[in-house]
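Help!! Second protein's tokens look totally different from the first
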Amino acid sequence: MTAFDQFVEKVVLHNKIATTELLQKAKDYQTSHPELELADLLIRAGVLKAEQVVAIRRKFAATNTAPITVPVPPPAAVEVPVSEPTAVAVEPERPLSAQNSSDPTSFTTLEDYLSYARKFGASDLHINAGSPPLVRKDGQLQVLDRPPFTAQEAESLLFSVLDGQQRETLRTQFALDTCCDVPGLGRYRSCFACQSRGWDGSFRIVDQQVPSFEQLNLPDNLKSLTEYHQGLVLVAGPSGCGKTTTMAAMIQLINQNREEHIITMEDPIEYVFFPEKSHISQRQVGAHTESFSAALRAALREDPDVIMIGELRDRETATLAISAAETGHLVFASLHTTGAAQTVSRILDFFPADQQGQVRSMISESIRGIICQRLIPQAEGQGRVLALEVMFNNTAIGNLIREDRMFQLPTMMQINRDKGMCQLEDSLQQLVQEGAIEGTEAWFEAANKSPFKQYQPEMMEGGE
């Protein structure tokens, strides 16, 4: 542990914010993740808040030899003895650079923009040479009011959050995918790339804590997919629809309720899990392993119970995932597909025609469920709501997959609505009836547009 970690431990224990047992779990987890500070882990465990860590960090930087009073709201400041001299009061919290400002023209660091994007409720931030900064909120891009970045400004901002090795990689390969962990501001899934006008950076805001099923408005019947001890669960949908967040919520549910060995392999790591009942190992492609397939091969020798794969990208990864599901592991994975039938077909497309029959048979037995999701703007214009297509495996579904009759899966899902299955169009219709989304949005999102013909935009009449 670093001196700052020890300081944080003293503050937390003195203020009785966490038990010794919980702190020991955090320290044990930190042993296998030395890149994380104890304060980061306590934030993700819900023990500390980001503003509390900022206050503690300031006082540690000022002195670590005298008793101090550290504000830990709520309650108000509490005196924390570290040694013998008199207590020192913590100064009122001041803005770091321009992070507390809502005027983008006053921002001077990338942290300012990241802080603003998180407070604004955006999902993404874009810093591009030759254009002003943009944020994506509720699925729509919005331009921030400031002049376009010069190439030098964009490079200075983007490279400021990278370490030496990352900068070298970016300059050599002209692209870099990583997850930036900014002290006091949280984690951001980040993509850096070179373009004709300079450097671009895209930052996906990641929640500090893993959201629950209730927070995501996921139906309770999906919890049954976390209760299996072997099988394959697929989460599908277009980019930016929350697939990673849904899988994280399912992994967290297992972590809270079962004593299992969980291994995740991601590109990059987004949500950092704090072990509760389960033991969790997280590996990042590029940093801890060469590829998903390499990580999956290694994982099968590490005695896992549950495996999470960030994305099924190629035949080898798909083969290993299906094999793992067949040999007694519960496997979660994501794909970029639009429906349950298309998801099965996409996996089959990884394989040559002469192998697809065998793969269909394996999938028909190992698949436990497929969740396809979309995030759709709310009717009031504030936020987005979740639309789902859900398929659970049963004898009839398995037979259709085995016999290559994927075109009949939607009909079978309709027949099994009382068992929790749901087509995307049914979910969209329900949201329209509840007034949660506009009918036009449902028309655009639906694969089968017939139920939403009345909402077809006038300018598009005569064609879909």
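Here's the second one for comparison:
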Amino acid sequence: MPPSPVPIAPSLDPAPSPQVAPQEALRLAEAFHIFSQASEELAGAYSELQGQVSRLSEELAAANGALRQQYQEKAALTERLSLLLDALPAGVVVLDDAGTVVQINPAASRFLGGVKVGAGWTAIESETLSPGDTPGEFLGGERRLAIAVTPLDSAGGRIVLLNDITEAQALKTRAERNQRLAAMGEMAAQLAHQLRTPLAAALLYAGNLENPELSATSTQSIANKTVARLKHIEQLIQNMLLFARGEALGRERFSVTELLGELAQNFEPLAQTRGVRFMVTDDSGGAPLTGKRESLVGALTSLLENALQALDGVNEGCIGLSARRKEGVVYLAVRDNGCGMDRATAARLFEPFYTTRSDGTGLGLAIARGVARAHGGGIEVVSDPSAGAEFILSLPCPEN
């Protein structure tokens, strides 16, 4: 057998290995470095963000705690204020810009006859309240209320405060009456003397009328004197009773111009008879007044008569009656160019029964001051022994 052929192995030369360019290796290394650096920065940023989130969470928790505490405190304060508002003896009404009741406490609801939230204040004023005797006071049923209105905010809201002054007014009236009665008791002897003098004169004149030999002219003269003394006694008694009763106000509405016109009509003839120049000046712009016109005329007439008496023995006597209005107040002034008075006399001038005249009762100026106070005003006097005296009666004047 022929020998088997020996297989010949193929040549196995290795293939050449791929070669990486140096530039590409550098770029890969640089990219890996940048990636590593960015990873580190992201890790740091994430860590810092976690810290910020933790701090913000703590701050938010603290803020929420503070807000919760503030809310609880405000809720407690609101509750206390509500309890206080309900317990107040004074009435409180809160109005919005349209004049509608948005809040009212029990006292105000009771004063106003059960008014509820949603009612209109204008309707309440017209249906429930009526003006009282004194400015700022109103009558609500059997109660006397002092009402004050205050702006609440820039949106036009208002808050109305109502105070029940029924008892206080009654006590004030009784105290004033007791004071007047005490003053009358202290001066009873002086008043009795003042009544006895004109009464004795009237009796003397009346006794002369029994003489049958008197002529008709003498009889008429004596009769006139008797009547004059009796009228003087009547005036003394009227003044005394007026002072004892005090001044009851009316609700008449009139202007200062009308008041001055009535005074001028009544007093000017008397001034002309005495040869005294009488001037009236009205700078009030026709300001309105509310009260008892007759009482104000009487008080001012008393001041004018005192001024006329102060001009006894004065040449070219002059009396001025003027009126002006300033900041919601009307000032009525009576000025004369007489002898005036010293400070001691001026200080006692308004005391009941104090007088510088032998035939005076000392009640005229006291009554005039009572009239002014009853109208919410007052009287003051400014006097100079060398330049006469000026009495100024002030009265509140409504703006519309």
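Reply: Different proteins will give different token patterns, so don't panic. Residues 91-164 form a domain with the Beta-Lactamase fold (CATH 3.30.450.20).
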